[in-house]
Design goal:
This protein has 141 residues and is an all-beta fold. Helices cover 3% and strands 45% of the residues. The strands form two sheets. A seven-stranded antiparallel β-sheet has the order 8-5-10-3-2-1-11, with no helix packed on it. Strands 4-9-6-7 form a four-stranded antiparallel β-sheet, with no helix packed on it.
């Protein structure tokens, strides 16, 4: 992609696969030319989620589209605060704060994530269960 597209379909970008689910980053500097943030869709399978981690130097916003889960975000003193989240929940993760998300439901959990500044999604490639599925080429509409 040239970085000049304003509407991105999920099939037009790489899918990052993990044992717990997948991520499709539809807005990154490489895809859209965005400078202040990156964004995409994360899908977690029932009973699965991502381990406790942080994004040094970046804030994260998570919006639950479907499914239900458990969201942990550490407070400023490092104490884990656990929330029950469902469609319509918005989670703010402050810069460098440890957090995790787990799907506690019976259906896939889908969330929309935003990282500011962009780049945190690149760290995911270092995880041992990372696999990449290239974009699917489809005719232009």
């Amino acid at each position: 992609m040239s970085g000049k597209h304003f509407v991105i379909e999920t099939h037009e970008v790489e899918t990052m696969l993990f044992d717990w689910g997948r991520i499709v980053m539809t807005c990154t500097p490489e895809v859209t030319g965005s400078a202040g943030f990156s964004a995409g869709i994360v899908e977690m399978q029932p009973g699965q989620g991502h381990d406790r981690h942080n994004h040094p130097g970046a804030e994260e916003l998570i919006y639950v589209i479907s499914g239900e889960g458990e969201q942990m975000v550490e407070d400023a003193s490092g104490n884990p605060i656990v929330y029950t989240v469902a469609p319509g929940s918005t989670i703010y993760v402050p810069e460098s704060r440890y957090h995790y998300t787990v799907n506690t439901g019976k259906e896939p959990m889908k969330v929309f994530v935003v990282y500011s500044p962009p780049g945190s999604e690149k760290e995911l490639r270092q995880l041992p269960d990372f696999r990449s599925v290239p974009p699917v080429q489809q005719p232009k509409r």
